[in-house]
Amino acid sequence: MDVLKTTLPYIISGISVGGQYALIAIGYTMVYGILRLINFAHGDVFMVAGLIMVYLAASLPLYLAIPLVIILTVLLGFTIERVAYKPLRTAPRMSVMISAIGVSYLLQNLALYITGGLNKNYPQIPWISDRITLFGMETSRVTVITPFLTILLVFALVQLINHTRIGMAMRAVSRDFETSQLMGIQINRVISATFIIGTFLAAVGSILFFTNYPGVVPTSGAMPGLKAFVAAVFGGIGSIPGAVIGAFIIGIAESVIKGLDTILIVNGAIGEQIGLATFSDAFTFVLLIVILVFKPTGLFGEKSTDKV
Amino acid sequence: MKKLVSLALVLVMAFALCSVGVAYADNPVVKIGVFEPQSGDNGAGGKQEVLGMQYANSLTPTVEIGGTVYDVELVYADNASSNDKAPTAAQTLISSGVSVVLGSYGSGVSIAASDTFDAAGVPAIGVTCTNPQVTAGCDVYFRICFLDPFQGTVLANFAKNELGASKAYCLAKQGDDYSGGLCNYFIEAFGKDNCVYEQFPEGTSDYSTYITNAQNQGCDVFFSPVSTEAAAQIIAKADTQALGMPILAGDTWDSNVILQAAKGTGVNINVTTFYQEGADADFDYGIKSWINNNPTALANNGGNDELAAVTVMGFDAYYVALEALKAAGSTDPADVLEVLPSVTYEGVTGAIAFDDIGDALRDSAFVKSCNTETGTWDFVAVATVG
Fold it and tell me: Which residue of A has its CA nearest to B47?
């Protein structure tokens, strides 16, 4: 019982962090699935969504600000694709990747210029940032909402991919880019749709994330973006359920490792601090290396077949 | 055609960079380098420290050196709160021909840049970098603030005697000389067996687990002298998770970033610092009206006129630099360096004089606590050791 009581808070916060990583990871994995492009700017779009919220909430009521944040972020994702990736459609894949890195730095430095590098306090969203008591532990409501909202959104997304025309087109394009073009699929529409969905989820993720950790700086997107990317690779890049499961595993593992010292001490397994908390980030990246060595396609990755 | 257009674009951009204007004045100019973070973790604090120098510069824009009146020009270099960018920023200042350097906020960047200043023989006056390493291995570094062994002891005594704590949770940022150093001195004074010490990696955003750790291990005080950016997150989490113990921190937390984060919450925060607002009413009035009349200054101070101690320290540092220039009678860094050890100055934050290794002779710190209803600091005590 004691073990459960001391461990539970870490697991709950880990699930919540995992949910937020999942929402970002889907953006990575979908774009990769269709364009074979690692969209390095995705984490920064997430940060920009946070900043948009900070500035909008200063002058607008929240019920207007939240939808507007989502719309503007989606617009940003769409514009990035049109301006920075679409002209390079026929260029080697490496050029697009470098363009993505460029966009990432552009967004970070624009944010640095606008905010002056200072921490911006994220507005409090009533109800979801309220404090609640769960199994005798204090936490905020957003911690509990995040995983459920994530799963709901993923469920909706899977329905969209499996049962709509645009979903079918996406699946076709991810299989074979050129053949689907020959079959009359308007490739640009499909790619735009992918970016719109990906940035929409990143915007929702950013609202949940920054409500939980209320401070936005130009580099806020870097670490969550990187972790989400690891989650996407871990789950098998290109696979949506893979990205979600990978994100939850990484979120929980990270959180438990940060508290492992305490869990072990409180339960009498070790006598004194051994400093495991320091390795929480290292663990994430070790996990990435291990999975790449033993299962290069990730947990749910598609098997690569050589096309002749 | 495309090639031409891109070539034209590149040329336009290149010329835009070169065309930064140069202002000419009648008086000769003496340059004082401002080596401060303007971005990154410590960007907010660095900007507040610079405010004090800018205010001092607006009050005293000229200095008489060896019979000639010089205009004082502040030359800025952003060390981006990053130890690997610090030497480059330091080099930028040296190359622009500064006579003396002020800064930096954050001990790590000061330590990282000390070799660069040393090699060039340019004296540097640390304003609020409290880690002993800043001056210890470096002949050109001086400082006007107290040191971490002192501050750590004051905080540990305060935790034991005033807060009645018997077990402390200490949280530092991995690889950060300031928070790591201060935690070590705190632990030394508090007793190693009664402390839980943990570090979080760069880029951490989820501090909830560290709060849970402190609660689970039954600590009575939460000591986390980390950057204000992390502090804002820690305060938010401490509130939602009902931390249930006072938070203690060093001079870094004496900032309105903390006040804003703590306002309206149920968190108990105590800090040690260099200056208590209200100690010099005329000075407070003057700098506040300057901040309020200057939109950029107001933004850099976090949108209100609450004074941070680092701003007041920046103000004093500017005058110490002027004293040194006057005493040297020349703008040559080598001459300034020679006279600096004997420079004394009666500042707003108290008397300033240097000891053999270039540290300030200071033996008292202010303890303040955060009033979460009004969002201001309440004075608690003047603490001394010994």
Answer: A118
In this structure, what are the phi and psi dihedrals at residue B27, rounded to the nearest 5 degrees?
-75, 155
Task: Please say whether the beta carbons of B269 and B140 come within 8 A.
Answer: no
φ/ψ of residue B376, rounded to 5: -135, 170
A217 phi and psi, to 5 degrees? -130, 165
| Other CB atoms within 10 A of residue A154 CB | 19
Residue B169 lies in a domain: yes
Query: pTM score, two decimals?
Result: 0.83
Residue whose token pair is 């769409």: A78
Q: What token pair was written down for B298?
A: 């107001």
Using CA coordinates, name the residue in chain A closest to B244.
Answer: A138
**B330 shares a domain with B260:** no
- Tens-digit pLDDT profile for residues B157-172: 999 988 999 999 999 9
- β-partners of residue B72 are B30
Sign, CA dihedral A279-A283-A289-A293, equals: positive
Q: How many helices (H) and strands (E) does chain B have?
A: 14, 15
- Listed residue (B343, B378, B379) closest to B358, CA to CA: B343
Distance from CA of B295 to the nearest CA of A (A): 14
How do residues B66-103 score in pLDDT, each as one tens digit? 889 999 999 999 998 889 999 999 999 999 999 999 98
pLDDT band at B152 (very low <50, low <70, confident <90, very high): very high
Give domain status of residue B316, yes or no. Answer: yes
Q: Which residue has the tokens 């870097």?
A: A222
What CATH number is attached to the domain comprising B377? 3.40.50.2300
Structural domain that includes position A79? 20-231
Calpha distance B47→A116 (Å, rounded): 10
Mutation target to probe the B interface, by most B beta carbons within 10 A, among A7, A120, A135, A138 is A138
Q: Is residue B78 part of a domain?
A: yes
Give dist(CA A248, CA A16) in Å, integer: 8
* Positions in chain A whose pLDDT score sits under 70: 1, 302-308
**Closest Cβ–Cβ partner in B38, B206, B229 for A17:** B206
Beta bridge partners of B307: none
Which residue in B has a C-alpha nearest to residue A218's C-alpha?
A: B40
The structural domain count of chain B equals 2
How is residue A206 written in tokens?
Answer: 């950013």
Q: Does ipTM come in above 0.85? A: no
Nearest by Cα to B347 from B316, B307, B313:
B316
pLDDT in tens, B242-283: 888 999 999 889 888 888 888 888 899 999 999 888 778 899
At residue A23, what is the residue type? L
Residue at A236 is within a domain: no
Residue B305 lies in a domain: yes
Torsion-angle region of residue B291: left (phi > 0), alpha (psi -120 to 50) or beta?
Answer: alpha
To which H or E segment does residue A22 belong? helix A2-35
Which H or E run contains A107? Answer: helix A93-115
